[in-house]
Task: structure prediction
Amino acid sequence: MSSTTTVLRTLLLLALLATVACSPSGDASTAPSRSSSPSTASPSASAPPSASRSGSLVVMGRIVTMDDPAVAEALLIDDGTVAAVGTRDEVLAIAGDDVPVMDIGQNVAYPGFIDAHAHWIGDREYYGLDTAAEAIQAALERGWTSIAELWVNPERLTELETLAADETLPLRVDGYLTLNEPQPNGAHFGDWYADREPGAVGDRLRVRGLKIHLDTGFELGLLWDADELNATVVAANERGWQVAMHAFSIEPIDQALDALEPVLGPNGPNPLHHRIEHAMQVTDAQLSRTVAMQVALVIHLDTAATDWLSDPDGLAELGGETAWLSRYRDFVDAGLHAAGATDMPWILPDFKLTDDIGRPVDQIAGGMDPRGRVFPEPPPWMATQLLTAEQGLRAVTVDAAYALGDEARRGHLAPGTLGDVTILSGDVTAATPDEIRAMTVIATIVGGVPALCAHPDVCSQLVSED
Ligand SMILES: [Zn+2]
Result:
């Protein structure tokens, strides 16, 4: 398939965004056909058996904490929660003799990576997976310990709640209940969320956010009357729900900020961490308002800036205006919490899931080197918008946790945080983008329990002592 055809399909699908598969009725009869041979990463990866929902272990090796100290030699997770971070001697003294030790050797441990905007479970049929378990496994294999599902209708909510009730969620899921269709006319579903309280459902699922589509991607028609949107955001905020608004370009971002200002005031604060999704085109004035109101942004550091915007037809939808596009560095330099998220599966060329896409390392490397997968050459305006590895790392840890409103517990490793850890084969803070992309996932640990172990030498230590 030609690259032009591919990108047009990508753009079209962006604009249409899963109308059928995402419909409340769940009628997927016209969804893209499933791949006959779905690809999943690391077929050798497997999770050791564990009946426990929370575990205790010492992780020993180079540990990047995203906290203070920035790098530690050892980490104690006690009953699912981080109990100590420090030197080997300090942590072992606290842990005592009964806690199993995972020596990660030359590998590097990070706070469990958080995909703050995706559709791993809900849109799995688009990339050829049949079951939620397969989709979750694909996310774990790529190094995510938390995934956010950004389009949860009643049917999808039932599935997530069933997974949570059965205690079959090996990672954490944050579900965002959708208030409208993405297209063609943004059909509204009313306040169907209002019969429940925002919060946790069991220990792995949280449902405290709402998803509102303001536009259809490149087709810039607005899906909400401003007064109705403002009233909806006010009502959601009063009930304690976080609002995540899909706003692609200037006009819908104005609408989002205008809806948030009555709730937050012109200068914040933003205690529920209301957020804007995608934010592909943001003017200087809008950036100033976003900073003042402390609105969180969710962006896509891999693929989107190049593949979504390199197509001339896509740019034409934006009026051919190349100013203010994909301002990732501007967002970070302005002090915003900008989460780097996959938007899986809407980044997949031809909806083909391969081992080298949809990973945290792709977000980090993509921020440094925003090459496209359909259009390899980054557009010229990206030259001033590159991130450092440290900034990309923040985007999938601390800032992603902020976007979920859970930054006290996730995105960093310190006493009291959740015992979620991803172990990679290298140090992303001392590597080139290509070296980062070549890193592999050694293990993902959720609540002190190894959810995935791809490296027998590391994980066998735990299995044998469990
Ligand atoms: Zn999405």
